[in-house]
Specification:
It is a single chain. By secondary structure, the protein is low in regular secondary structure. It has two domains: 219 residues, Pectate Lyase C-like; 165 residues, Pectate Lyase C-like. 11% of the residues lie in helices and 7% in strands. The protein has six helices and seven strands; from the N terminus they run E-E-H-H-E-H-E-E-H-H-E-H-E. The strands form three sheets. It has a three-stranded antiparallel sheet. A two-stranded parallel ribbon has the order 3-4. Strand 3, helix 3 and strand 4 form a beta-alpha-beta unit. Helix 1 crosses helix 2 and helix 4 packs across helix 5. The protein is globular, with a radius of gyration of 24 Å.
Length: 446
């Protein structure tokens, strides 16, 4: 089907087609409502669909009663499950990468072979849960209770285990290499074997177990297990795929409503228009762009204070020098976004996914970065004064020369984060090598 649209003299030729259906069930808000309404009816729905994988990525399921729900082989990437009741739920083989499951009840839940990399299970209750061969690498397990749980053969590399409880848990063959704060965890009565890998990377010994009041069991030497990987799922979608061409008119004035419509309708055409009209001013104050698909969009030097990008896809977007003060990026996808020199003062980046983002020399003063994922991001020279960095993941990020004065730096992940003498700490003092080393960061002198 072909359709021509006009925006202030810019003609757009849009060729529409449809994506092929797959063997998995695409994201459907009605399905989420059914899950929340009645796990029993949800389970019947799954049986009717031959237990096909289900797309529940970024689903909002806070405090939901999902007791006994069948969520096996589902994709729950970055889903919000904090406070949810998931006791006896079936999550076998599911993908919960970077999901928020804080304070959830997962008693007797089955997460065997689940993919839980970077999941936040802080203060979750997981007594008698089954996590055999689950992949929990880099997970936040502060104050999580795994009492009498089966974690045999699971991967806990680089996990945060501050005051985590493993009382009487099965930790045989668990990989704890690089795990943090294991000394603060409770391993009383936990089953440890010679196939358990300690934080140092060495195999556990009887004396290592005894010091921690754990039980040591000698087993035949085993090879390193193959940990769960995220299942490959291609979901059906009701959206139409689009390919477009355009013939820019050269006109340099477009109203804000037309700008928004053109940008959301087709990013490729929008970028072509911007390239042909470099003098065009982009002014979209407090624009509503929730859930918009804007991958690779050109918003360089745009004026968008207070804009709402919640849950939007801004992967690889070009936003250098833009005014995004007090904008809302909650849970937005912003992988490799370019924000060099941008103004993000007072912005909300709560749980935004910003791996590999360029935020060098950006103004993030007073910004909310709670739970934001900034692995390998470039924050050199950035202004983070007064920013909220609670549970922010800064693993491998570059904070050289960044200003953190007055920032709330509580429970961040600073593993391999680059710190320099020019980095200003929350105290207002310059960073030191000892400060960096204690937090697992890398101190680099010029």
């Amino acid at each position: 089907m072909k359709q021509i649209r006009h925006f202030a003299g810019i003609a757009l030729l849009i060729v529409s087609g449809f994506l092929p259906l797959s063997s998995a069930i695409g994201f459907d808000p009605d399905a989420v409502k059914l899950l929340v309404k009645s796990p029993k009816e949800w389970n019947a729905f799954r049986q009717q669909h031959s237990m096909q994988p289900v797309d529940l990525n970024k689903a909002k399921l806070e405090d939901a009663d999902l007791e006994g729900a069948n969520l096996s082989n589902s994709s729950l990437v970055r889903a919000e499950l904090s406070g949810a009741k998931l006791n006896r739920a079936d999550l076998r083989g599911s993908n919960l990468q970077q999901a928020f499951v804080k304070k959830a009840d997962l008693k007797e839940a089955d997460l065997s072979s689940a993919y839980l990399v970077k999941v936040n299970l802080k203060e979750a209750y997981m007594e008698k849960s089954r996590l055999q061969k689950a992949n929990l690498q880099g997970a936040n397990l502060r104050w999580t209770r795994f009492d009498r749980a089966d974690l045999s053969g699971s991967n806990l590399q680089d996990a945060v285990l501050f005051e985590t409880s493993f009382i009487d848990a099965d930790l045989r063959g668990v990989n704890l290499k690089g795990a943090l704060y294991l000394g603060n965890a409770n391993l009383r009565g936990a089953k440890i074997s010679n196939n358990t890998i300690t934080p140092s990377g060495e195999k556990a010994t009887a004396s290592w177990a005894a010091i921690r009041d754990a039980e040591y069991r000698k087993e035949p030497d085993a090879t390193m297990p193959v940990y769960a990987e995220p299942p490959v799922m291609v979901f059906a979608t009701p959206s139409a795929g689009m390919k477009s061409t355009s013939s820019p008119s050269g006109q340099a004035v477009i109203g804000s409503q037309q700008q928004q419509a053109l940008m959301v309708d087709d990013v490729e055409t929008w970028n072509t228009m911007r390239a042909a009209n470099p003098e065009l001013k982009i002014e979209l104050k407090e624009e509503k762009l929730e859930n918009a698909k804007l991958k690779g969009v050109n918003l360089q030097k745009a004026s968008m204070p207070g804009a709402d990008f919640e849950d939007a896809n801004l992967d690889e977007a070009m936003m250098e020098g833009a005014d995004l003060s007090k904008a809302n990026f909650q849970k937005a996808d912003m992988k490799k976004v370019k924000l060099h020199g941008a103004n993000l003062s007072g912005a909300s980046l709560d749980r935004a996914f910003m791996e590999g983002a360029d935020l060098s020399n950006a103004n993030l003063s007073g910004a909310n970065l709670f739970g934001a994922m900034l692995q390998d991001a470039n924050l050199s020279g950035a202004n983070l004064a007064g920013a909220a960095l609670f549970e922010t993941d800064l693993e491998g990020a570059n904070l050289s020369g960044a200003n953190l004065s007055g920032a709330n730096l509580m429970e961040p992940n600073l593993k391999n984060t680059i710190i320099s003498p020019e980095t200003i700490l929350p105290s207002g003092k310059n960073a030191t090598q000892s400060w960096a080393i204690v937090r697992g960061a890398i101190f680099v002198k010029p």
